Every structure is written in structure tokens, then in C-alpha cells.
Amino acid sequence: ATLYEKALAIFREVGDASRIAIALNNLGTLAYGRGEFAQTQALHEEALTLRRTAEDEQGITASLTNLAVAISALGNDAGATNLLNEALARYRALGDLAGIAGVLLNLGMIASRRGDLEMARRCDEEALVIQRGLNDDYMTAMLLNNLAEVFRRQGESGKAFALIRESLELRQALGDQIGIGLSLMAMANIAGMSGLAERAARWLGTAEAIFDAAGVEYPDNDMTWAEFDALARQLTSGSGADKIYGAHFHVWRSCVQLATVQDGLNSVIAEDYSFMAPMYEMVTAMQKDGIVMD
């Protein structure tokens, strides 16, 4: 954060409002990663004010989403939903498909948390169509899992199971060990609730075996990227023909560039792409360390 703070001080000194907002955004993203949500909120509120004054449409949209994610983490889902709805309208006006999908993902998660399953379903279904169109298998698999959970809670276990199977197939093709484990655990959960105890035990056992073999706790769908990195490192083992990679990134666009906008905090058509740097640094470090294929 020190370099961003130094940059912010310089931009404040010269009165460059656009770059002040960019620096605030980057500092807010770092604060969020540290779990400092009140600080995150303050930084993004200032950035949003500057961008509204400058009528920076792309910046306004990004800051709205940033702020929504921050206040949602503080328990204000109603306020976050209002901000996300404004961001969604602006992304639609801009024609930013990845941004639209990212906001819908967040709206779906909030709706699911609040028990509004019909809203969660609509958001997840629209986001899924967009991600399929973008040929983003990684995000498609994630949305399939989210939508399957909604169907499961609505009592439509057949639809939920079909979605989870598709998610599993995508993750197997990607070689995503963490994702495979999550999909298997979801399949086991659905099977168990459907009275298929033997299948549930088999799938759960397969999923657990992936993590048990590495001696790590079972993951959930609320991981941060830092937690994903740490878990992938724990799951990596062997060498040569016996090598097991802890995770997989399909292609740079789908699994690295678009991953930086999956939560709707930024946009792939932004003027400044410095927000992508942490993700690039993480992935290249994972490649260098043999955690994922390069």
C-alpha cells in the first residue's frame, strides 16, 4: 500500500482528481483484501464523489460497485443492493458485458443471502448466459454452482444436479482441483437430500480425498483469491508424470483478466489497468512455483 499512498499524496498535491480516484480505488481494493471494510468504504466513497463531480461514467460505475461490496461486507445488504442496481444500469448503458455479469453475480449472492431466491435465480441465470457468450469456462462453472444452490434450496434437485454435473465437467477439463472438490461436495449434498445416501457418500468421499490427501480443510465458495492461492499451494504435489497441480488457469483472458472484474469492482474497458497487477503477480508467481501450468 505504501507506493499507492505515495502516489495518492503526489496526485493530491498536483490536484489531479482522476488519478486521485484511481489511487483511492487501488488502496480500497487492498484494504478490502485485508478485511478492513470500514476503511474500504471511506476510500471508495471519496473516489465516487470525485468521479461523480468529473462525470466519469466508467469510474462512477466502478466506484459504485466497489462501495457496494464494501458496505455489504459490513452487513448493509440493502444499501449495497441500491448501489449495485445503479451500477448495473450504468454498465448496461455502456454495453460492458463483463461488468454486467460481475454486478449480477454480486446481486445474486446478496439476494441468496437474504432468502430472495427468485431474484438470485434471475441474476445468476442472466450472468450465466453472458459468461457462456464470453466463453469464460471458469466463471461459467462458478455461476453453475451458484445457480445449482438456488435450485437446491427451491427444491428442484434435478435441475440443481444437472448444473453441478456441468460445472464439474468444466472444472475437470480445466484441471481445477479446488473447483472439482467444491462441485463434488455440492453433488454429494444434493444426492444426500434426495435420499441417495450411497452416491452422496461416494462423491463426498472423492471430494474429501482431494483435500484430505493434502491435509487441508475443506473449502467453500467464499474464498478470496489469496485463500485460493494458499489452498492451491497446499494441494500441489509430485513431479514429472506424477505431478498434481493445485489449480488451473484456462487462458489469460478468461481466468486472469476477467477474474479481476468478476466482483464488479472494475471493468475491462477501463482507462487504467493497474487494478489487474495483483492478479497478474499472483498467477505468474503460481506459474513460477509450479502450482499451475504455464
Describe this structure in words.
The protein has 294 residues and is an all-alpha fold. Helices cover 73% and strands 0% of the residues. The chain is built from 14 helices and no strands. The chain has helices at residues 2-14, 17-33, 37-54, 57-73, 77-94, 97-113, 117-133, 137-153, 157-174, 177-193, 197-214, 225-235, 252-257, 277-288. It is globular, with a radius of gyration of 20 Å.
Name a few traits of the molecule:
294 residues, mainly alpha, 73% helix
Oligomeric status of the shown chains?
A: single chain
Low-confidence stretches: none
| Helix content percent band | over 70%
Strand content: under 5%
Radius of gyration: 20 Å
Shape: globular
**Cα-to-Cα separation, first versus last residue:** 28 Å
Count of DSSP E strands? Answer: 0
Mean pLDDT: 82
**What structural category characterises the helix and strand content?**
mainly alpha
Number of helix segments?
Answer: 14
Sheet bearing the most strands, described?
none
Order of helices and strands: HHHHHHHHHHHHHH
Chain-wise SSE layout:
Elements: H1 2-14, H2 17-33, H3 37-54, H4 57-73, H5 77-94, H6 97-113, H7 117-133, H8 137-153, H9 157-174, H10 177-193, H11 197-214, H12 225-235, H13 252-257, H14 277-288
